[in-house]
Each structure stands twice: as C-alpha cells, then as structure tokens.
C-alpha cells in the first residue's frame, strides 16, 4: 500500500485510544479537570457502566464563551506555554488532549459558565465534529456529558471488560481521589443509585470509614514526614490488618494518583519481618515534592511518573512508614487466660467468639466399616490407585486436645489427628448448605449496622437474597450501609458484622477460591470466619460434640475450601515407625 496521510477523523480516533482506554479513563480526566478548575463540589453520574452516559458537573471557575470551541481542540491548553513548563507543572492536566479525545469517540455535550460572564454556553460534538454551539443560562461551573462511548469505534467497545469490572474501576478511582482531596465534596451516582458521597469537610478518616469500616479506619496509623523538601502524609494499616494483594496500596504524587512499583515496594519493605509472606498493608500516601523533581509526561494516561532521585525518595518512603509503625503500633498484650493450665479440678472455660456447636447431640450408633488405609500412608503414596479413600470416617473415640488446636482420636484402624478449625468449618458448611427446611434465626438484641465501600456494597447487595435464605436478616440501611437484625442460630454466639464483612474481604492466606454456585461460595466464606479457631481450648464435651458432628458429614475429610480436616496414622504405620514390624516386601 502507498504511504498516505490519515484523515483527521481517523488520526483523532487513534490518538484517543492512548487517553480514553475505558469508561474510568473518561471519569479520571473530567474529575482532574474539575479539580484544576478549583471546584468545591463535584457530581459524577454514570449509566450502563459508562457506555451510555458519563456526566461530571462541578462548581469551578468555568470556561469563557470565546474559548469553549478552543477547549475541545486537540493540544489546546491553558496549563503551559513551552516544553520547559513541563518541569514546573502543578496542575493535573496539561496536554490539552482529553476533551478532544472524548469528543472523537462519543457524542459529547459541554456546558460551561465562567464567573466573569452573565451567561453560559453549550457545545455539542459528535464523533470529533462540532454539531452546535449556543448560549444558555446555567449556573457557574462546567457540566460535561459523554454519551454513547465508543459508538463509532465498535472494536474498542467489544474489548471492554464486564460491566461489573468497569463499575469497580470507576468506584475505585472516585474513592481514591476523594481520599486525596478530602476538602472536595464528591458524589457518585451509578445507574440512578448514589454509591458514594464525601462531605468535603477535610476529614480523611471519615472517608476511610466509608471504604473500610469504622473500626479499621480508627486503627489506621497516621504518617507525617517532612525532610529535604519532601513531605509525606497519609495513613497505613497496623500489622494486624493486611490484604492478600497490593490493590489497597494507594500513592499520590503532588495530588496525582500514580502506579509506581518502586514506591510500593519501599512501603512494603518497611513492614519487613512484621507481615507474613504474601500479605500487604492498606495504605494511602500523599507525597509532595518540587515539580522539578518529577517528570509527569512519560505516560499517555499520566499514571506513571519518573523521579530525578528515585533512590532518595524510595528511602524516604521507607523511613516515613517505618517511623509510623514504630511510633504508633501498640505492644501486643497477652491474654492472661492463655497462661492457665488444666488441673484435675479446673478446666478453663472456652472463650467463644465465634459459632456455637450443638453440644446436646449424641454420637452415631452405626459404624461405617473401613477397609484399607484412608489417608496418607506409605502404602498409599506408593500405590494410590489401590487405596481409594472412603468418603465417610469410622466411629472415633476421643483421646484429647493438643496445643488447643488439634483433636486426637482413636479409630478401629489407627489414630486420627483432627484440625478443629477445618473440622468445624465442614460441620457448619453442611448444616448451612444441606438444610431441608428453613434455617432458624436468632434475632439480635441490638441490630448491628455495617458500612461498606461502594465496591463492597455492590457485592453485598447482590448477595442479600442468598443471605436471607440462609438464616440472616439483612437489609439496606442508607448509603452503602446495611442493618443485620438476625443471624442463623448456628452462629448465635458469633460476631454478626464479621460474618457479613468476610463476604467481601480478600481471601485469607490458606483459602482457595471455590468453584461452583455463588451460594456455596458465600456460605463457605462465612463458615470459615465463624468456625472455632486454632488455639482455642475446648472442653471435653465440646471436643466430643465436634467429633460426633464431623462423623455425620457427607465429606468429613476436607473443609469446604479443600484443606484436609484430619491426618490418619494407621496401626500398621505406627508399628513400623516404632520398629515393631519390618516394612512389607515390595
């Protein structure tokens, strides 16, 4: 094909792909424009995950009538005059590409009223071409409506993620900017429902409480650092609050949300020796430094930056976080109950903080005969096909508890070591998921109110029907807020808020995602949280009841997430280990 110059329309659509990747890209650019315009109130409205409508309105200084058409022209900006100005940028926007890019891949309407003029004006752009310009009476500020995103580039539309993913991206973006600019009143509405609102009173903890709940927000550690012209402020989580990935590590540089692996690594290293491998903190760091020390013009979406002295900044972030950890982290307090030991006349009463077992139930009368070794023995490892594992376990005789974590029991074919947490998980899961009649509920004396982030609230809302079918009574109680009026009787001694929060919290370190029905996934997560924990002493009656319940389960050998509930040591294996009998001939 011969070389030719592309038409302006095609060139604009190609260039737009660097700035407008998805719906959240539009929200980001418009939100940053509103912040640059010195707005105090910003309202964002989204329909159909941004494909049908994205509307951002603000009360900023607005655009002059004579400059409205120029504002939607590519490379038109009021932020800089020369290339040298790139190293003195103090605004979020500066390239003059965003509005032109949006207009080329959508039907865009922009209405603006500058405070120095008596009336406003409106411009309509379709596919990069100006359709109309008119004078209109509107309040001071700017409203930009982006309709039918990617209507003229259907290939781009096909490559968008699911609506749920796109909504989550938008919600994450808006909440992060609300944290960075707590003095702004920001409101987000998705499909006619308000999902987030900040008051603009400047209190970051108030916004953190909306995202992570009051208790976590109250426990976050404040970071305050100022040295050599670099100021680092924000919040980090104590070592007791972690996540399984880096998604909750948020870093702003001069008010701009960036993704920088080096700075994130510096933050994580400050926690070194404090956290388990694979666990990460929640953090919000706002780094302020001279514009000359950072290059913001290295990424089309301005999500990445380069620093003049990256090693120095890396060390400062690490020092700031480490200082906050040492200054605010409380010294762990040992529960005196853990110092007590059993005597002939005294057994410590178990401190039930989770679910209650039904201690009145008796053992099964029938015995399920077992032929061959059901668990991991030497013979099974060598000839696994010849040793099929039975789904049931035999009647077991309780011997006792080891380390307040494992039960020891004797069966007709050897000894069983049982993980009390995994076993209780299995018992609760089968009682919850295999019910043949309505699960009984225990009304709470005082209904509990729980607040979630917009992303988490959406998950809870979609799970309400399943929860209410399984003995919970949960209903919406305001913006991203839910009221728990009752919980299943099985969990009557448990923490109602913990049961609800575990649905949306990240997977724990020993938990693997379940395949199958959504109801089973939710119930499995709740049972994991509500089951008796390792390290919790159980009375003899409680140990016996747990063993009896486990024998009745359909799949007693694993917890709902696939972790083994028991280890079996056959009599034959014990005899060989003690040298009472030689190994069998191969």
So, the CATH homologous superfamily of the largest domain?
MutL, C-terminal domain, dimerisation subdomain
Could you give a short account of the major beta sheet? 8 strands, mixed
pLDDT < 50 runs, ≥5 residues: 331-390, 507-516
Strand arrangement within the widest β-sheet reads 5-4-3-6-2-1-7-8
How many distinct helices? 17
CATH fold naming of the largest domain: formyl-coa transferase, domain 3
Amount of helix: 25-40%
What is the annotated CATH architecture of the largest domain? 2-Layer Sandwich
Strand content: 15-25%
List the helices and strands and how they pair.
Layout (H helix, E strand, L loop, with lengths): L7 H12 L3 H14 L4 E7 L5 E6 L9 H4 L26 H7 L2 E7 L6 E7 L2 E8 L4 E7 L6 H5 L4 H18 L4 E6 L2 E5 L6 H9 L1 H6 L1 E7 L2 E7 L12 E5 L2 E3 L2 H10 L12 E6 L5 E2 L10 E2 L2 H19 L49 H5 L14 E6 L3 E6 L2 E6 H14 L7 E11 L2 H16 L3 E4 L4 E8 L7 H6 L16 H13 L9 H12 L14 E5 H7 L9
Parallel strand pairs: 1-7, 11-13
Antiparallel strand pairs: 1-2, 2-6, 3-4, 3-6, 4-5, 7-8, 9-10, 10-13, 11-12, 14-15, 16-17, 17-18, 18-22, 19-21, 20-21
Commentary on this structure:
It is a single chain. By secondary structure, the protein is of the alpha+beta class. It folds into 3 domains: 8-201, 2-Layer Sandwich (Heat Shock Protein 90); 207-328, Ribosomal Protein S5, domain 2; 349-586, 2-Layer Sandwich (formyl-coa transferase, domain 3). It has 17 helices and 22 strands. The strands form 5 sheets. It has an 8-stranded mixed sheet with strand order 5-4-3-6-2-1-7-8, covered by helices on one side. A hairpin with a 2-residue loop joins strand 7 (185-190) and strand 8 (193-197). Helix 1 crosses helix 4 (98-104), helix 6 runs antiparallel to helix 7 (204-212) and helix 12 (420-433) packs across helix 15 (518-530). It is elongated and about 95 Å long. The chain starts with 7 loop residues before the first helix and ends in a 9-residue tail after the last helix.
């Amino acid at each position: 094909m011969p070389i030719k110059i592309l038409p302006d329309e095609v060139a604009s659509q190609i260039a737009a792909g660097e700035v407008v990747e998805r719906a959240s890209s539009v929200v980001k650019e418009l939100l940053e424009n509103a912040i640059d315009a010195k707005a105090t109130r910003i309202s964002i409205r989204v329909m159909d995950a941004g494909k049908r409508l994205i509307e951002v309105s603000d009360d900023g200084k607005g655009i002059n009538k004579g400059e409205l058409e120029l504002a939607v022209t590519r490379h038109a900006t009021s932020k800089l005059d020369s290339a040298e100005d790139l190293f003195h940028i103090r605004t979020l926007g500066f390239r003059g590409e965003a509005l032109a890019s949006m207009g080329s891949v959508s039907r865009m309407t922009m209405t603006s009223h500058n405070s120095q003029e008596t009336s406003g004006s409106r411009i309509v752009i379709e596919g990069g071409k100006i359709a109309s310009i008119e004078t209109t009476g509107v309040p001071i500020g700017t409203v930009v409506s982006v309709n039918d995103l990617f209507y003229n580039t259907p290939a781009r539309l096909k490559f968008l993620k699911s609506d749920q993913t796109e909504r989550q991206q938008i919600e994450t973006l808006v909440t992060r900017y609300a944290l960075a600019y707590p003095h702004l009143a920001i409101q987000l509405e998705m499909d006619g429902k308000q999902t987030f609102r900040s008051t603009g009173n400047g209190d970051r903890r108030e916004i953190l409480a909306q995202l992570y709940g009051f208790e976590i927000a109250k426990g976050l550690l404040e970071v305050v650092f100022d040295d050599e012209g670099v100021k680092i402020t924000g919040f980090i989580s104590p070592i007791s609050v972690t996540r399984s990935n880096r998604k909750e590590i948020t870093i702003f540089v001069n008010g701009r949300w960036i993704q920088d692996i080096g700075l994130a690594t510096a933050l994580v290293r400050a926690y070194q020796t404090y956290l388990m491998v694979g666990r990460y903190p929640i953090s919000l760091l706002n780094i302020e430094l001279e514009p000359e020390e950072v290059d913001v013009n290295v990424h089309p979406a301005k999500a990445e930056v380069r620093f003049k002295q990256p090693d120095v900044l890396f060390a400062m972030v690490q020092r700031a976080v480490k200082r906050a950890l040492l200054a605010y982290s409380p010294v762990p307090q040992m529960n005196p109950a853990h110092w007590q030991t059993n005597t002939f006349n005294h057994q410590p009463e178990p401190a039930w903080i989770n679910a209650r077992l039904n201690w009145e139930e008796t053992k099964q009368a029938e015995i399920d005969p077992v032929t061959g070794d059901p668990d991991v023995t030497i013979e099974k490892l060598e000839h696994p096909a010849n040793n099929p594992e039975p789904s049931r376990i035999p009647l077991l005789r309780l011997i006792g508890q080891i380390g307040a974590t494992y039960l020891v029991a004797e069966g007709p074919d050897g000894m069983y070591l049982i993980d009390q947490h995994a076993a209780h998980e299995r018992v609760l899961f089968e009682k919850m998921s295999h019910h043949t009649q309505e699960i009984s509920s225990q009304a709470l004396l005082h209904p509990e109110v729980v607040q979630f982030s917009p992303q988490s609230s959406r998950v809870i809302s979609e799970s309400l029907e399943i929860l209410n079918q399984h003995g919970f009574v949960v209903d919406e109680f305001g913006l991203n807020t839910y009221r728990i009026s009752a919980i299943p009787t099985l969990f009557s001694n448990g923490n109602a808020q913990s049961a609800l929060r575990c649905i949306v919290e990240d997977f724990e370190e020993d938990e693997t995602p379940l395949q199958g029905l959504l109801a089973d996934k939710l119930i499995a997560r709740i049972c994991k949280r509500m089951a008796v924990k390792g390290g919790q002493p159980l009375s003899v009656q409680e140990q016996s009841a747990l063993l009896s319940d486990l024998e009745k389960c359909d799949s007693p050998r694993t917890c709902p997430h696939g972790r083994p509930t028991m280890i079996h040591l056959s009599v034959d294996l014990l005899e060989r280990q003690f040298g009472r009998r030689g190994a069998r001939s191969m």
